[in-house]
Backbone:
């Protein structure tokens, strides 16, 4: 029942222009931020600890900008499954997709490092622009609610992406390798690890942060070509994604140089526009702030 209601609601949203939906998003922002205060304590804590050099006024401005973007993002995700390929291509541009296509054309599969930044869900429209013989797969964590999980998987697959549950990643890559099928596999790699996985810490957003290293292990084991996806919001409802080839420091003595480089690139992108990062997650619950600078 819930699934069919959600499906019907998304179908209705498909008939509503973006300009109207963004007006509705403004009302959602006021409700979530000013009335309900949805996860405001978590967001404020994350921002204050991540940017100790910023004063309270600056933190509040980022906070409000984040919530405005957060509600816009909800609208955009709801809309994506019913958008035509033509409209999606106008709204989500991949500036140098030809470089990825060249790698795939020569028979090597690609591993993409993604983050919870910008509209990461719209990245799943990449198959609209890919080398025709390639499979585009997105690794995902299954949601607890089966109806919401089903809806999200349908949305992500709407423009040709293949959904692969995280625990089935190795099996999927092995199957494609046996068939000599080239793939591009996206990993949203900034997940917070479980307590049992607290084995690798790096400095990230002013925290000594435990991070997952599984993405690097998979990329290295299967010899995937590693790329980082840098995202920019051009304006409401329009994004640009640029692929950056990852070259870890040859002199690094780290066990996980790709992971180190990924978090360095992710932090640099976040600092350009902090409001586009997903601050509602308590991702630093196992990490401690490094400094406490007061401006």
Residues:
């Amino acid at each position: 029942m819930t699934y069919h209601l959600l499906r019907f609601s998304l179908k209705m949203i498909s008939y509503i222009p973006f300009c109207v939906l963004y007006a509705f998003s403004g009302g959602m922002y006021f409700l979530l931020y000013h009335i309900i205060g949805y996860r405001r304590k978590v967001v404020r804590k994350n921002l204050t600890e991540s940017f100790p050099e910023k004063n309270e006024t600056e933190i509040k401005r980022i906070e409000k900008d984040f919530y405005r973007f957060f509600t816009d993002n909800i609208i955009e995700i709801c809309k994506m499954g019913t958008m035509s390929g033509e409209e999606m291509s106008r709204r989500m541009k991949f500036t140098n997709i030809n470089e990825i296509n060249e790698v795939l054309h020569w028979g090597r599969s690609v591993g993409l490092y993604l983050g919870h930044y910008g509209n990461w869900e719209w990245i799943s429209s990449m198959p609209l622009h890919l080398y025709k013989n390639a499979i585009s797969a997105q690794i995902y964590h299954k949601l607890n609610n089966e109806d919401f999980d089903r809806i999200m998987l349908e949305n992500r697959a709407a423009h040709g992406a293949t959904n692969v549950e995280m625990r089935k990643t190795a099996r999927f890559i092995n199957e494609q390798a046996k068939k000599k099928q080239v793939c591009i596999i996206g990993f949203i790699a900034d997940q917070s690890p479980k307590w049992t996985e607290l084995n690798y810490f790096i400095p990230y957003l002013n925290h000594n942060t435990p991070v997952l290293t599984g993405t690097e292990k998979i990329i290295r084991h299967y010899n995937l070509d590693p790329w980082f996806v840098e995202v920019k919001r051009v304006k409401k409802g329009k994004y640009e994604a640029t692929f950056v080839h990852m070259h870890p420091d040859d002199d690094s003595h780290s066990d996980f140089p790709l992971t180190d480089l990924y978090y360095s690139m992710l932090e640099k992108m976040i600092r350009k526009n902090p409001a586009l990062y997903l601050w509602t997650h308590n991702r630093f619950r196992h990490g401690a702030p490094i400094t406490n600078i007061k401006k």
